[in-house]
Write a structure and sequence with these properties.
The complex is a heterodimer of chains A (about 400) and B (about 350).
Chain A: H1 2-45, H2 77-110, H3 115-129, H4 133-147, E1 155-156, E2 162-164, E3 167-170, E4 172-175, H5 179-207, H6 214-231, E5 236-239, E6 242-243, E7 248-249, E8 252-254, H7 256-282, H8 286-294, H9 299-329, H10 341-353, H11 356-385
Antiparallel strand pairs in A: 1-2, 2-3, 3-8, 4-5, 6-7
Helix pairs in contact in A: 2-3, 2-7, 2-10, 3-7, 4-7, 5-6, 7-9, 8-9, 9-11, 10-11
Chain B: H1 2-33, H2 38-46, E1 49-53, E2 62-63, E3 69-70, H3 72-85, E4 91-95, H4 101-106, E5 112-113, H5 121-126, E6 129-131, E7 136-138, E8 140-145, E9 160-164, H6 168-179, E10 185-189, H7 192-200, E11 206-210, H8 211-220, E12 227-229, E13 237-239, E14 242-244, H9 248-267, H10 274-277, H11 283-288, H12 305-312, H13 316-323
Helix pairs in contact in B: 3-9, 3-12
The chains are: A alpha+beta (about 400), B alpha/beta (about 350).
Chain lengths: ~400, ~350
């Protein structure tokens, strides 16, 4: 009897718990729905157009950097959205790579036993992370712009590149038939070297001997593609930038706005990553380093093989936040005229169509998706570095 | 069953009829109330007008070094304040960028938008705003560095052009280059200040905006004399103050503020002679200044509304000269903005 009663109260509690959660879901859903109805109702009453009909209309404005084909006369607002999004992704991806490399270097340098190196790294971190990012961005932009010569006095770089206050212009590679084979040779070289590396590691784990594969790797990755390149009759030429009446014609163009934004984002975020890395390394018990030394490992391999892998467990979660900050901070592009998503879509498109609610909602959803995707990737990586308890 | 269904249906129809009748009565009540403008009522209750202005454009809307707002658009808002409060200081100016100006107006953050804004069909029909009256006929022009030795916009093929984002300028620029088969490199900035700074440092060959703005911008450059404004005007830019749709009475106040200033210039009524003109025998002047008729009351103001505007702010010509014309550093000629009697397009509507 008692057992049966307890079972029913248990079931009742479960039912009430589920009912409570269902109610919560319904209430939250109703709130969102009410907000949606309220907004669309008010827009309609104020005679403001709403909806996404504008998406396929002709944009009519120009964009200074386009990774995909875009023309003011024929492309739609939707196309402009993709151009902006790709520009955001480009600066964010390169920024994350640069900030990580710089941040790890400085974080490790700050723990160096070399007094000068440690102080320099410490000074970098304190200086950079205490000045607002927007100011740094304007500094880089104005410093980059003002320090560079005008178009006619362009600096000519070795290899035919040009540097002036309109940007950096590099010779653009023009691929001829036969270049595909060179790429194939490169891929084969990398794959074979990787297999060699795996075999060498297995041999080291089994016998302790360290087979030298460096020269093999160099030959396969460097020599093989070069040989194919020569055999194919050098299927590559360059379009060298030329100074025209107003601008530089030809070549590959790197805008000063892009360079300034990339520099500012990576330098700024690197300071925070450096601290994250330092904290992660300090979190590894000193006994680990000492044990590595006792085994006869030198400082470099001890750091690489013993300390960093353990530190990564501590580093990855805050590192993810720094990556997310960098991605979101890239929207400061609007201050210097780099055509990112906010500048192009939440700026020009919003103003021309006047549909603030839709455009801002889409922009927010995009940043949310990019951030969630980044978090997901980092969590997957974090799971790999997590402590495996035996 | 069937009878009950029919009864229910009949009951439903009766309910529907009652609802329709109720809605109609409510509508009547609403339209009766609409005689008073909600915006005007709010402005009076608040004790000041909130005016969306530029903030960065010399001659049109910019605070001077002492923090006093001056400019052509600023004086327009002061004129509205004069008509309502008989006091030109009862205006709060909100600086707006090209990108956030319409949202500020739509959301009720400002009562009126007087920020060198072009009247276009899409803005008028999709943004829920109404344009009151064209108070400045403008057109887009180009400024270039003198050292480029360019004398016409048609020579700008391949040039880098700095432009402010979210403007009709941005669109006209692309149109113009496209229609003349020229290529261009646009560098777009969120605010006009950043665009000017970039042009000044040589990032662009040319800067483009409404030609009225170009003269003001030129004065802000580090070396004004090394820049010239090209002769081409590539677009029509009828600049007009705007208000939210749905408050026609308020739109009337804004519209007639402009026409009162224009009529005053046409009749020769100015800041200095307006008191003497009160004794004028000209019926048009008597109606304008409120000596005859109830014209002020019909827009929810006092009958001396136009007298207040002219006394405290001046007529259209005075406002033009003081801010952008010969009495200002910009020295813009009246051109299209001369009175229709002098070959321009400014045509005052009759007060009667």
């Amino acid at each position: 009897m008692i057992a049966a009663a307890r079972r029913t109260t248990g079931a009742a509690r479960r039912v009430s718990r589920v009912a409570f959660q269902l109610t919560l879901v319904v209430v939250v859903g109703a709130l969102f729905y009410a907000a949606y109805i309220n907004a669309s109702d008010h827009l309609a009453r104020a005679n403001i157009s709403s909806g996404l009909r504008f998406w396929n209309n002709t944009a009519g404005f120009d964009i200074s950097q386009t990774l995909i084909a875009y023309s003011a006369s024929t492309s739609s607002f939707g196309r402009a959205f993709w151009v902006g999004l790709l520009n955001t992704l480009l600066v964010a991806a390169l920024g994350i790579i640069l900030a990580t490399v710089l941040g790890f270097t400085i974080g490790i340098a700050r723990l160096s036993r070399n007094w000068l190196v440690a102080r320099l790294a410490g000074g970098y971190v304190e200086l950079i992370r205490n000045v607002p990012l927007l100011l740094q961005l304007l500094f880089w932009y104005n410093a980059v712009l003002k320090a560079l010569p005008e178009l006619r006095q362009s600096l000519v770089l070795p290899g035919g590149g040009l540097l002036n206050n309109r940007g950096l212009f590099l010779p653009a590679p023009l691929f001829k038939p036969g270049f595909g084979e060179v790429l194939t040779a490169l891929l084969i070289g990398v794959a074979v070297t990787y297999v060699l590396h795996l075999r060498a590691r297995r041999r080291q784990e089994q016998t302790g001997a360290q087979p030298r594969i460096f020269w093999w790797g160099l030959g396969l990755i460097g020599g093989l593609p070069l040989a194919v390149f020569a055999l194919a009759g050098f299927p590559l030429s360059f379009s060298v930038p030329q100074i025209g009446r107003f601008n530089v014609a030809g070549g590959l163009e790197i805008l000063p706005e892009f360079a300034a934004l990339l520099l500012a984002l990576s330098v700024y975020t690197a300071a925070f990553i450096a601290e994250v890395v330092r904290a992660g390394i300090l979190a590894v018990a000193p006994g680990q380093t000492e044990a590595a030394q006792a085994l006869g490992l030198r400082a470099g391999p001890a750091l690489r093989l013993i300390v960093i892998p353990q530190a990564m467990r501590v580093i990855v979660p805050p590192l993810t936040s720094q990556y997310l900050n960098l991605i979101k901070n890239s929207s400061l592009a609007v201050a210097i005229g780099y055509p990112d998503l906010v500048q192009v879509f939440a700026g020009s498109v919003l103003n021309i169509t006047g549909q603030a609610v839709e455009v801002i909602a889409i922009t927010m959803a995009v940043y949310l998706s990019i951030s969630l995707a980044t978090s997901l990737l980092m969590n997957l990586y974090g799971r790999r570095t997590a402590l495996v308890e035996r | 069953m069937r009878g009950m269904g029919a009864r229910l249906m009949r009951k439903g129809q009766i309910m529907k009829r009652i609802a329709t009748a109720l809605a109609f009565v409510t509508l009547l009540a609403c339209s009766a109330q609409a005689a008073e403008s909600p915006t005007l009522k709010a402005v009076k209750a608040r004790g000041e007008l909130i005016c969306g202005a530029n903030g960065q454009l010399a001659g049109f809307g910019m605070p001077d070094p002492q923090g006093n707002w001056t400019g052509f658009d600023v004086d327009f808002c002061r004129a509205i304040a004069a008509a309502i409060f008989n006091d030109v200081t009862k205006v709060k100016f909100v600086p707006l960028t090209a990108t956030n100006r319409f949202t500020a107006l739509q959301s009720g953050e400002v009562d009126v938008l007087a920020r060198n804004t072009t009247w276009t069909m899409s803005r008028n029909t999709t943004l829920g705003i109404d344009f009151a009256a064209v108070n400045y006929y403008d057109g887009q022009g180009f400024m270039v560095h003198k050292e480029l030795k360019v004398s016409s916009a048609l020579e700008l093929n391949g040039a880098a052009v700095c432009v402010q984002q979210g403007t009709t300028t941005e669109l006209n620029l692309a149109d113009y280059f496209r229609s003349h088969n020229m290529t261009l490199k646009t560098v777009t900035f969120a605010t006009v200040d950043e665009a000017i700074k970039a042009y000044d440092t040589g990032r662009c060959d040319s800067f483009t905006t409404d030609s009225s703005g170009l003269y003001g911008v030129r004065l802000q450059l580090s070396k004004p004399d090394e820049n010239i404004v090209l002769p081409e005007i590539i677009s029509k830019e009828p600049l007009s103050p705007s208000v939210r749709q749905g408050d026609d009475m308020w739109e009337n106040v804004v519209r007639w503020t402009h026409y009162a200033m224009l009529d005053a210039e046409e009749f020769g009524v100015s800041k200095s002679n307006v008191d003497a003109q009160l004794k004028s025998t000209n019926p048009e002047i008597r109606r304008l200044l409120g000596v005859e008729g109830q014209f002020g009351q019909s827009i929810g103001l006092t009958n001396d509304w136009a007298y207040r505007i002219i006394k405290l702010v001046g007529n259209y010509g005075e406002v033009f000269d003081r801010n952008v014309g010969q009495g200002s550093p910009l020295k813009i000629t009246r051109g299209l903005n001369a009175l229709w009697t002098k070959g321009g397009l400014q045509y005052g509507l009759p007060v009667r």
